[in-house]
Design a protein that fits this description.
1209 residues, alpha+beta, seven-stranded antiparallel sheet, 46% helix, 14% strand, globular, repeat, GTPase activation, EF-hand-dom_pair
Length: 1209
């Protein structure tokens, strides 16, 4: 690439000159490529320096220098990563600049002209490709080229960033570069001639931690299932670790569902031709992380994206102060939070904004901005650094905001009348005073006082509205008017697995509450749950959702309850209610970690009893609603909507802390559960105005004295006093760590379940199946990374049974076939893979799951002889996959397919055709394929085995007799497959001969079969009758040494059809010189007739040796006839050297067919073939080989099929 001219002081230091002319020098860096001048110790040191030193790590291996005559100063004008690239630049200079420069007389003019020309080229290139000037652009482009080259990654793999660091291999640190891409963590080092290369997929990482040791204060530890890796000496470890965390999170999301792949797709697409900047992907991921934190902080909808933030002050009228903080601006919201935690926060939806104006600046109030809302509140911000730009951005967003009609409900309505109760009345008054002082509705000032009021309990009449406000659900409801009604309408009358589960659980949802003891309450609950199941099919419905939703319906309207459920499932309790309750399991791990830190005296005891895992799921999934009396549990829900998940953790720790002594004396988990159950049952809410509702969880026997009552407000206050230091950001860090562990544990469980289910169906061992599953899953994930014919959602459906979750399409199957199947040899491998894929794809969705894959592989590797041959037969009985596939055209060419490859040592000249007028010079040679007499002797024994296998197989669902017959076109394909299968076998020649003999035998069997299945019909050509009569004479009269001419059937008129019944093709090679064939069969067997067909096989044209099957064919002219005669035990092929061209289109015999039993019996007559198909296959060796290919990062079948796997060390 051309670079802005830079001065070089020492032109030859560390560089070798390869080309030179009076003005330009082309140089190669020592230690890179080439033989002369760059090797030795100097080259080794330079290569090491290029990797270790930051200053030279990005130096391209080639460069072009410009030097004016009589000057000692050199200028770099171009550099390149490859010799080809730099040579193109060199040739351009020689053709376009060299002659022009010779005209100049002044050295300064030459310098100015060259520098101006190069800068002009760069500017033009940038203009065409829309590139802005950026210092890192060229360096990052080099890093991308290096990344793809070093690790064999395809273009689709996007590099995010790269960092200098040390990798500890054993006790030796290797200084090098860490490359972080969307799907892989890679490291490369080259020290003193020793190379270290590491490739780890993010989906394989089980642990990612930032550790501090005495030797290295900053170290990143990366664990996979099989190894652990340590990296240190980072220039900016915090930035590196944050990016690693984010990429690992995306990978875990990919394993969990398909949103991770969609996130990957949503990253900015960079044109291959344009230089890629370090900022593009990195900046996008940083922005995504900031948006996530912003949404979590202010409880905003999950599609809200942060546009920017700035420091400012906010005037707070309730305490007459200017509070220092940050303003955040996004597409639909303006938010503020104070620097001092919990002091004040503010959410202003743009839909509520009426006026945005710049007020006059003063020394007291510099750069003020006033924002007014519909509920007549005005917010005054000041000390804004770039006020004009900010106002412009807000104005732009306001123009995009559509005014949606939503009337905020006045917080005064009541579900249950409680005005007479003093405590309830006092609570309501406290809230009304608060609203008067801090504002009411979504735009109110949220302060510590707001939280304190919530902790004291929300009045019954205000609970629903405040839940909407505190959770942020009010924003989603306001921006989606009519959404819920539409969803209910669409979901009515529709049934699926989720609706069945909902119906089953409806009457189990707070059955003790009067609201759900009638059909009205049940119907509302049904509508909300069903609507959500249709909104989010990934979750659908999960047990515990019914309990939470029923409580929401008690305090909120139906639509409000729906949006509260959305906020709960999708934002506040992420992944809690999916099919594998991953979120709850993650938080269970977080809770265990918190218990270890905050109640260490109890932790070991609880772990021994296994109680934490039992209690946490029921506590967290239902927010204590299923384990506490109802009136107390709703107070917990109040706090949860205000403070989030930290409240649940604090409360759970407080419950454990209150029962430490009793739990330490427990002898088993049952006793511990009883202690905790009795404690939670005794939690009361004395302020509640609700009628007492019996709690189903209370199952205490009469002989146990009741537990002392525990006040819910005192318990919550205690949890804040003892465990209030737990921060939301700390919980998120712990969640990330646990998410890796939980999802990888679930993946291991899935693998074990799959293996346990399948091991009885196949002949593979458990170890083999586990390795195969890992390969299959890796192939699935790779296809999701780098695309394929179908998208990720089609290939992975977590709701399906374990065996069907991961699926691959044909491109991925082709790669697996080439690596693992014993029949994948030669150029025919892809065709065979396509046939097997179609056979295994039972439902025709163009995807196969692991069970289908293993069934095919098991039959091919570990099946007995009959099973293997049945699989081979089935693959060819299927209809042809597509009309584009080139079909065999000539049986003659198919015959050549075998016999041309037979070496002279295998041929035996029997004699010349006595009727050939041209004599010996004609080249009529009779090639004898002598059948092995051992095969004859053993044929009876083989038939006995066949009868035995047939009896065994009768109990199977698909008996051999159920298999359809093989027609002539399919038979040719089967023969071609068998020929290609042997191309790399040590007994290649023997197998070719055996196949030829079997083919001849089957052709004769097919001809005989025609006589028994088809009655002779009148033919327009009398020679056909003659042929049939001749065959009958041969069959029944057993006349020896008599030849029967077989006339070629006339071609079909009109369009040519290819189907199961017939396969007709055309010879695509015009003027192809073919030779007449005569087959003389002197065996005393009854079937001396031969096949009359003409097909060609274009696929064989790519083979180095054009061999053919022993297919018997005849020309279409009377003089080109095929003859059969009996000559003892030998099948004899007679070839002529005539150069007659075959007709372009002829037909295959429609009536010819063979059965599987005939195919099996014929093959059993050849010991070489029996031995080949009986040969055991070492599966682990093939799996190891597949892994090695992946570790080297080499393509499997094409440039787009890559397999990258963890490389230990």
């Amino acid at each position: 690439m051309w670079v802005n001219p830079e001065e070089v002081l020492l032109a030859n230091a560390l560089w070798v000159t390869e080309r030179a002319n009076p003005y330009f020098i082309l140089q190669r860096r020592k230690g890179h490529g080439g033989d002369g001048g760059g090797g030795g110790l100097a080259g080794l040191l330079v290569g090491t320096l290029d990797v270790v030193l930051d200053s030279s790590a990005r130096v391209a291996p080639y460069r072009i220098l410009y030097q004016a005559p009589d000057s000692l100063v050199y200028w770099t004008i171009a550099c390149g990563c490859s010799r080809k690239e730099i040579t193109e630049h060199w040739e351009w200079l020689e053709q376009n600049l060299l002659q022009t420069l010779s005209i100049f007389e002044n050295e300064n003019d030459i310098n100015t002209f060259v520098r101006g020309k190069i800068q002009g080229i760069i500017a033009e290139y940038n203009k065409i490709n829309g590139i802005k000037e950026d210092d890192d652009t060229e360096k990052f482009k080099e890093a991308i080229v290096k990344f793809h080259k070093l690790f064999g990654m395809p273009e689709e793999e996007k590099l995010v960033n790269y960092y200098s660091c040390s990798y500890w291999k054993g006790k030796v640190p290797r200084q090098g570069w860490m490359y972080l891409s969307i799907n892989h963590l890679c490291f490369y080092s080259f020290l003193m001639g020793r190379e270290a290369k590491l490739v780890i997929r993010w989906v394989d990482i089980t642990q990612l931690e930032k550790n501090a040791t005495l030797l290295f204060p900053d170290m990143i530890k990366v664990n996979t299932r099989s190894s652990e890796h340590f990296f240190s000496v980072f220039l900016n470890i915090s930035e590196t670790f944050k990016l690693m965390e984010q990429l690992a999170n995306i990978a875990m999301r990919q394993l969990l569902d398909n949103e991770g792949f969609e996130q990957d797709r949503s990253l900015p697409k960079l044109k291959k031709k344009s230089p890629k900047k370090v900022s593009a992907l990195k900046r996008d991921l940083d922005a995504r992380a900031k948006s996530e934190r912003y949404r979590a902080l202010f409880r905003l909808p999950k599609d809200e994206k942060l546009d920017g933030h700035t420091d400012c002050t906010l005037w707070t009228p309730f305490n007459k102060m200017h509070i220092l903080g940050q303003m955040f601006v996004s597409t639909n919201y303006i938010c503020f939070t104070s620097k001092e935690e919990n002091l004040c926060s503010l959410i202003i939806p743009l839909r509520e904004v009426t006026i945005v104006e710049k007020a006059d600046s003063s020394s007291v109030l510099p750069s003020p901005l006033s924002i007014s809302t519909k509920n007549r509140m005005t917010f005054l911000f000041a000390n804004l650094k770039d006020r004009d730009f900010l106002v412009q951005r807000i104005s732009d967003f306001l123009q995009q905001t559509t005014s949606k009609i939503y009337l905020e409900k006045d917080i005064s309505g009541s579900c249950i009348s409680s005005d007479d109760e003093a405590k309830e009345f006092l609570k309501e008054q406290a809230w009304k005073i608060h609203f008067a002082e801090y504002g009411q509705g979504v735009c109110m000032y949220r302060t510590e006082k707001t939280r304190d009021l919530v902790l004291k309990g929300i009045p019954e009449s205000m609970r629903g509205e405040l839940w909407l406000l505190l959770s942020g659900a009010i924003n989603e409801m306001a921006t989606h008017p009519g959404y819920y009604e539409d969803l209910v309408e669409k979901s009515m009358g529709k049934y699926n697995l989720a609706t069945e589960e909902i119906e089953r659980d409806l009457h189990r949802s707070l059955p003790e509450h009067p609201a759900f003891q009638n059909e009205m309450g049940i119907a509302a609950l049904r509508r909300v749950l069903t609507a959500y199941a249709f909104r989010n099919p990934n979750i659908g419905y999960c047990q515990a959702m019914n309990i939470v939703t029923s409580v929401l319906l008690l305090y909120a309207k139906e639509e409000e309850a729906f949006w509260l459920l959305v906020a709960l499932c999708e934002r506040m309790l992420p992944d809690y209610y999916n099919t594998r309750v991953v979120g709850a399991l993650v938080d269970q791990g977080v809770f265990e970690e918190l218990a270890r830190d905050y109640v260490p005296q109890l932790y070991d005891c609880m772990q021994d009893l296994g109680v934490i895992s039992t209690i946490s799921l029921s506590w967290f999934l239902t927010l204590f609603l299923s384990v506490m009396p109802f009136e107390s549990a709703v107070v917990v829900v109040d706090c949860f909507f205000c403070e989030g998940i930290k409240v649940i953790f604090q409360l759970a720790l407080a419950v454990l802390d209150a029962n430490v002594d009793k739990l330490l004396n427990c002898k088993d988990d049952g006793e511990a559960m009883t202690v905790l159950g009795r404690y939670l049952d005794s939690v009361t809410n004395k302020d509640s105005t609700l009628p007492p509702i019996p709690h189903l969880h209370s199952l205490l026997s009469d002989d146990v004295e009741p537990y002392p009552e525990v006040d819910i407000f005192r318990l919550i206050r205690s949890s804040y006093e003892k465990f209030g230091s737990i921060r939301a950001d700390l919980i998120e860090q712990m969640r990330f760590k646990q998410r890796l562990k939980v999802i990888q544990t679930l993946e291991d469980t899935t693998k074990r379940n799959v293996v346990r289910t399948i091991v009885t169906e196949t002949s593979f061992t458990i170890d083999e199946l586990e390795e195969l599953y890992a390969l299959f899953k890796a192939e699935h994930l790779t296809s999701c990374y780098w695309g394929g014919n179908s998208n990720a959602i089609d290939r992975h459906d977590p709701s399906l049974p374990y065996l069907e979750q991961y699926r691959i399409d044909f491109e991925q199957f082709k790669g697996m076939f080439a690596l693992l199947f014993p029949w994948a040899c030669g150029t025919h491998s892809d065709v065979l893979a396509a046939r097997l894929f179609r056979l295994l794809d039972e439902n025709g969705d163009l995807l196969i799951n692991f069970r289908e894959f293993v069934s095919g592989l098991s039959a091919a590797c570990h099946g007995d002889l009959t099973e293997k041959l049945k699989l081979l037969y089935k693959m060819h009985v299927l209809p042809d996959p597509s009309p584009e596939q080139e079909e065999p055209d000539s049986a003659f060419e198919a015959t050549q397919y075998f016999f041309e490859d037979i070496t002279p040592e295998c041929t035996h000249v029997v004699g010349l055709d006595s009727r050939n007028k041209q004599g010996a010079d004609d080249g009529f040679v009779t090639v004898s394929l002598k059948t092995d007499k051992v095969g004859k002797k053993n044929s009876q024994e083989n038939r006995h085995y066949l009868r035995m296998w047939n009896q065994e197989n009768k109990s199977k669902a698909k008996n051999a007799k159920d298999l359809p017959k093989l027609n002539q076109g399919q038979f040719i394909e089967l023969c071609k497959t068998m020929y290609n299968m042997f191309s790399e076998d040590p007994s290649e020649q023997d197998l070719y001969h055996a196949t030829a003999a079997v083919t001849s035998l089957l052709l004769e069997i097919g001809e005989v079969g025609k006589l028994f299945t088809i009655q002779p019909t009148k033919e327009t050509d009398s020679s056909s009758n003659n042929c049939s009569k001749a065959i009958q004479n041969e069959l029944f009269q057993k006349k020896e040494n008599q030849q029967y001419p077989l006339e070629q059937h006339k071609p079909f008129q009109g369009s040519l059809v290819t189907s199961d019944e017939e396969a007709i093709g055309t010879d695509n090679v015009l003027g192809m010189q073919m030779e007449d064939i005569k087959l003389e069969d002197s065996s005393p067997r009854d079937n001396g007739a031969c096949s009359s067909m003409l097909i060609s096989d274009d696929d064989t044209k790519d083979d180095s040796s054009m061999s053919s099957y022993s297919v018997l064919s005849a020309g279409s002219h009377e003089e080109e006839k095929l003859h059969c005669e009996d000559i003892g035990e030998d099948t004899v092929l007679v070839r002529s050297n005539h150069t007659t061209s075959l007709r372009r289109s002829t037909s295959i015999d429609r009536d010819w067919a063979i059965t599987f039993e005939q195919f099996l019996a014929s093959l059993l007559t050849e010991p070489a073939l029996v031995k080949y198909f009986d040969k055991p296959v070492s599966m682990m060796a093939r799996i190891t080989n597949a892994k090695n290919i992946r570790m080297m990062g080499k393509p499997i079948t094409s440039a787009s099929d890559y397999e990258i796997s963890t490389m230990s060390g």
